[in-house]
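Quick one - inputs below.
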Amino acid sequence: MTMPSALAPLVTKLELWAQLDPTERAAVLALPHRVEQLEAHRYIAREGDQPRASCLLTEGFAIRQKILGDGSRSISAIHMRGDVVDLQNSLLGKADHNVQTVTPAKVAFIPREAIQTLAVDHPRVGLAMWYDTLVDGSIFREWIANIARRDGPARLAHLLCEFGLRLEYAELGSRTDYHLPLTQEQLADATGMTPVHINRVLKDLEQRGLITRSVRSVGIADWDLLQKAADFNSAYLHLKDRAPLLG
Amino acid sequence: MTMPSALAPLVTKLELWAQLDPTERAAVLALPHRVEQLEAHRYIAREGDQPRASCLLTEGFAIRQKILGDGSRSISAIHMRGDVVDLQNSLLGKADHNVQTVTPAKVAFIPREAIQTLAVDHPRVGLAMWYDTLVDGSIFREWIANIARRDGPARLAHLLCEFGLRLEYAELGSRTDYHLPLTQEQLADATGMTPVHINRVLKDLEQRGLITRSVRSVGIADWDLLQKAADFNSAYLHLKDRAPLLG
DNA sequence: CGCCGGTTTGAGTCCATTCAAGAGGAGTGG
DNA sequence: CCACTCCTCTTGAATGGACTCAAACCGGCG
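Output:
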């Protein structure tokens, strides 16, 4: 278990939900953990595993995905720095989905018992982690609506809006101009389309002047316009409802 | 605030996750609450609201849904007796989706401050509620996969399997023969299809001998067969991973 | 009896898919 | 430096699953 600074992003994240006092902050930073540098496409957890550690993403990008019976894949979340990536799998005992890096990534593994103890000994920290899970849930619901009811262009545009906003919020880029670390195949699996169709939809968004693309980067000329085309309303990210009661 | 017995289903539910000691059990039952009998199609929370109370469903059925920009609707969850229906909305401060009854229902409203206080004063109860939220999230992920990647028949069959199993688990019916309290339009909004297509898919499942239907009831002749057609694996419901560590 | 919400059925259309092939780019090794 | 490979992206053509539009049917209920 290494230098505590690896957990700093976790404190930052939790303090969005609850102003922690010095004791609580120290307790979080004192969590036992093991830092690891992972290559791209590496599995952090596999469906059916009984993981003994949760994991904090401190660098790079990761996804949560499932492989269905017919071999197709569904991506249900994209994660970036500061996200606690594996609470579900490790706390619930048995992983119900896979977690995988998409780029080289640095992660801190935290034993599940340590998380539970922290939550019990410092209930306000537990509450903050619970809030984080609630926001996760909110994002899942929006993805359900996105995939179920929006057409191709709106669906992809919505993903681009969400990703941009979250990147900006995590201070990893500008929401109107950022590097998108996903292949078109991954975008397809995150939106319930085929890679071929993603390609055509991207072209369509570009031709309509809503986005510009270079290598694997996205530029958004007119944020409001794209937001409108995407039927995007950031409320579900709860970026502004932070530290609502605690503190 | 009425007789505490209305909260009994909540204790039952939480004890699936953590064996509570008498003090903790008493604390849950001592939660201030207001019982209300609601008619069908009544909104419990509306998107944008700042609800001051969470709500426990003690009788009847309810859904969570969103109305999109074009007026279409997406249903992201179906709830039955014992489910805590509005933690997300009330704890996060601002509702990001609607909660609505689909049948007449009895609910117990619990002030959000009371929930928070409970979680802080009795951290293990807080942990149990957190677990419940994690399972919610797991179901959302499966729904994403379901809508994104399965075809009509499998998608609907999957919903029928899940609903049956959850009903049985809540002791509200048999998984192979139950009353389905949803209209075909609601089934459509829960699976990302149109009502017309739901109708055809139902007919298809019936003709293939996978289900039988009467008024608004479903019979499943061969559970294993339907499960297979649905690509259904109940692991994501975490019915068997109960009380994993606590207690 | 007649209304009304929900269900069922038909016909035509379209969006997204499948299948297939080619182009671009990065990395490897001769 | 060039050939070779692998992966990703791009494009075309044909197919098909789900949609829209529209009408009819059904059962419960005032």
